Protein 1
Amino acid sequence: MDRISDIFASKKPLVVFTTAGYPDPARSEEGIVAAIENGADIIELGVPFSDPMADGPVIAAASQQTAERGFSMNDVLALAGRIRARFPRVGLILFSYMNPMLHFGYDALCAELARIGVDGVLPVDLPLEERDELLGPCRKHGLHMIPLVSPLTPPDRIREIVDGMTGFVYYINVAGVTGARRGLPPDYPQLVEQVKKLTSLPVASGFGIADAETAAEAVRYADGVISGSGFVKALAAGVKEAAEFVRMLSTATASAS
């Protein structure tokens, strides 16, 4: 088994997204270390991008500001390498829009990710119909490519999206952009169950996981939870606040699993 599969086989993990380089390079790295030390099992490293169309105001602003300061893909890779050296068992996923990956070169990027020890990529805006151009390099270099599905994805489309994928499925809890919300939609249990019937992969629940109650509710049905905007907002306030936020979610996730 690989690192991501091992993590999901052992528990219902807490996945934490952060914009790499935000609020500044030093605090970004300190925040990631604090997240791991306080219960994050998998880190999604968000590549800063000037047009983060799938993200709500918190992550969009963080991404745009960090991209404008010149924090590049090379900087993200260097950060990933330092985190991997320090935490050999934590899961690492590169979370990116297609433009930065295309600019770097798919095969070159996947080769470098594999060399560093990153476990996979999550391409935010890659349509199913154009997936093979990145999927080929991912498979060549032994990386997971994490698929995303939402409440608006029809079952037949979900089946196509998850077919042949590895790692886990990112289930988007709500239609719309990222952002902290209170509670989950009333049909959340049924929709997650629908996805689980269509794949043997673990299904992790993201978008809107920003408090203990929502995390506990989500993980009762999903195989893991993902928090992004809540962590980015906490880290903007300070590394201590970010650590406390992750500890809160980790405790809630573990107690509800």
Protein 2
Amino acid sequence: MTAMPFAGHARPVRAVAAELVRRGHDVRVYTGRSYVDMFEQVGARGIPWQVAPDLDERDLAATFPRMRGKKGFRQVLVNLEDLFVGTAPAQCADLLAAYDDEPWDLLAGDPMALGTRFAAEHLGSRWASVSPIAVWLPGEGIPPTGLGLTPGRGPLGRLRDAALGAASGAGTAVLTRRYQRTRRRAGLRRDHETFATMWYSPQLVVAAGSPGLDYPRADLPGHVRFVGDLTDDGAPAPAAVLPDWWDDVVRGSVPVVHVTQGTANVDPRDLILPALEALAEADVLVVVGLGHRTDPLPGPLPANARVAPMVPYAELLPRTSVMITNGGYGGVLQALRHDIPLIVAGGDLDKPEVAARIGWHGAGINLRTGTPHAAAIAAAYRAIDTEPSYRATAARLGAELRSLGGTRAAADLLESHLP
């Protein structure tokens, strides 16, 4: 298996690896050095990046200097060019060396670890994608991915989506060309993949999420199989380290609102501080997970706020009424699996697409920006608190996610793909 060395990628892949190990399979995982131990804790064997430039997700600019100071579209572009596409030939070299050392029967890869595709093609190896990120491929009747748009209505709306789809293809042509040049560097011939499809195995895609979370479509390829939430591996969890204020959550009588800004963009002024301001006078308990990269928050906290670097979701989410999030896909799936409606401030990367779908389905509110004002957050919370349909839709999507089988279904599909 392969996993990009990011928490939101490695943890779902680890859950699938753990299930495969429980079934008696010999699992090796190629990932960054900082995540090797995490895989070995569940019985897999870690293979660290060697030729590929190892990285620290907390400081990507140290390895990829062009990322320094980048946000929004510029961050997306540099991420794709330097990190995800640029490291693929070196990942491929590492994987080919691992195969020479000990051949595998099946290669199951994180789609953003593009070296997986390159190695599989070199070897003629059977391979599958195990995607912790949303698999939202272009299709008929839906807007192109990346713009955070919802499907147009009526003839004019369909015309808009078709025109935007054509323009999007032209706009991502530069990245497709970069991909083709990178293939040549890796010793591979040109193929017919586009920027939208080059990440995924044409044989099998095991995808986190559910069909119901995407826009309605009838053209999803049959080899794309949704399996729900991949963060729940079914293994006994280690005892959680709970904050000293945890009794306020357990014994409180007011709704719990969880605020998370993820681990990539960590300026608390983007979402955390406006959310605290928005809910400072509300009759709720606000629980903020900062992540390990965010500095302590400035100034005194509102009386109804509790803050910790990390908050154990297994204990928190069953007690959570609403989640305010930057739209990280794994966190959104976990919230929905617990029937929690969402307020989403999706700023960049795939997050505007997550926010758009949550808003379009009615499982929460799309704030349409990654840096919302406190007034917008307060209004969104009042709407969710007073309109039962948001919670009902979140519960409907949650039931679908739970029904798809999670890591067990993922392992079933990978086993069925073995030679």
Protein 3
Amino acid sequence: MKYDPIKRSLGKVFNKKPFLRKLFYWLLDLLLLRAWHIKKAIRIWKKNYKEGASILDAGSGFGQYSYYLSKQYKNWKILGVDVKPEQIEDCNNFFTKIGKSEKVKFEFADLTKFSKNQEYDLILSVDVMEHILEDVVVFKNFQQSLKKGGMVLISTPSDQGGSDVHDEDDHSFIDEHVRDGYNINEIEDKLKDAGFNKVEARYAYGAPGEISWKLSMKYPILLLNTSKLFFIILPVYYIIVYPISFILNYFDVNMKHKTGTGLIVKAYK
């Protein structure tokens, strides 16, 4: 499944005006279950950082999480990095237009080569590690870049059906993935081997979340890849489907899952 053509189509619409970009972020926050999980984790983490924080958005993409972080406390400094120059330029332009370029900046960076010396209080990695083959190198760079007491927050598919892969004959729903998902013990061990003192990993996208993902993301993307005409009826589709997805997302975020197709991982230095 190719996401990039869909991203480019959406970008042409939502990048025309800042208010459309903000609307796009709002829609992503509503639809993407991972955003629900990430924002809940950030709300817990931020209680100890009211006086200031230095944050790395590692794999910033459209910049939606950098935007969310920028609204928390005015004295937070955020750097977003990505390997796609067009997205870096696009994000810098947007944050300049909305007057936040002093506290939020974006740079090109390859995470396998990007390392700072104890510079960040929080490193955010949302649906990035499944795209990087040299994951251990990145984890070591994260550990080096964190301040003492800092946290890495990771969202990634699990090996329990992540990327919509459920057996050996299945292929990833997203072609860009280099791995279908992490075993929960595997990612914990890799992070500990990279030097993190404490690692907490839990399943996301349990039974309610998996159903919600199919309704709100998988089926619409499949239809959009079949025909762009589906853009016309997409609003009607979501008016019908979203109330169901909202309830399912709520339960997924507030339940403890014995298994799930996603992982939320916190690693502390």
Protein 4
Amino acid sequence: MKLAIVSPYPPSKGTLNEYAFHFVQNFKLKSEIEEIIILTDKIDESYPKEDSSGSCKITIDPCWSFNGLFNFLKIRSAVKKHSADVVLFNIQFLSFGDSKIAGALGLLTPVYTRMMGTPTVSLLHNITETVDYESAGITKNPILKSVYNAIGTILTKVILMSNVLTVTMPKYVNILEKKYGAKNVALIPHGSFEVPELPKEVKQQKKQIMTFGKFGTYKKVEEMIEAVEIVRDRTGEEMEIVIAGTDNPNVKGYLNGVKEKYSHVKDLHFTGYVEEEDVPRIFTESTVVVFPYTSTTGSSGVLHQAGSYGKAVVLPNIGDLKELIEEEGYRGEYFEPNDINGLADAIEILVVNEERRKEVGEANYAAAASLPMEDIADWYLLHFESLVKSPKKPENSKQIPINTSTSLEPVLIQ
């Protein structure tokens, strides 16, 4: 089988690039796949050359551009050129551009690839019905929110024209079935990128309080910094604050502003973009991982990474993230968004109580180990093989009832 994957891919720093990387690392081990064609965005750097080592050939074709207006045509042509048997889109609503027109046009691509006869699976990481436009830094204008909701509804209907649309959260399945009458939606969990042996906590002179991501919209670090300061005053503990990541593209310059505002804070470190090979070190050296979110836009890859390294986490008590915790078995200390004292309380519990920290970290490791990307890749292969053998139209397809319990069994569209 020749599998085409449409997604940003390292060294591209586009959203979901790490997810695509780990997809490829697991798909290339599957005997059913003879070649993976990565259809990724053009960047200034060079991508690795074609890799023919092992049983699976890997080809990287940077055939589209972020904010390009004709990506849907370019990707369609690339799928045809490489004679892909099936194409997987690893996308969210701004994958093809933060320009509204370019982003929307790019989302037409799954329809085009299916129309040309190539079985098409789209993994949609978020849906507009659960996005807080104000927190995400898109707009505060109520009229524009209504416009974006209407456009989002149209684009969701378009993406649902894929042979199969996969999502990572049961809540999304329920919305898509109820609102859109969708019959071709499958629940496949996010999965954990890597699950090493449960690491022992690195004993350091100063405990590290770390957060990881793209910041400035619904992920902001000011309250976390101030909360750690409170914990320092209360406990006398020596703690480093590590902000690992970059600005959200919608809020460029955000972290530089934070650096200036909190230049007086002791042991405050900003790592900048974290390369894939540095991710294990960042997590291994951390004592507690904090999620300073005011809302969420889907399943959290950072949570799965924290679990993979057996880390205790501090989480906001909000919708999607809390649901994910309960469904997949993760645990943490909760705080209410925008409550600095509550955030400080949660951090303090895990900093001073080693037994509690260990208990939460081990529970998160167990949750991560139960859903490795290797298994997630197998679930996708079931869909690929079914579609390649007998492609079906969504309107004629039947869906096996989706299990939304904590076991998250795979679901196959026939």
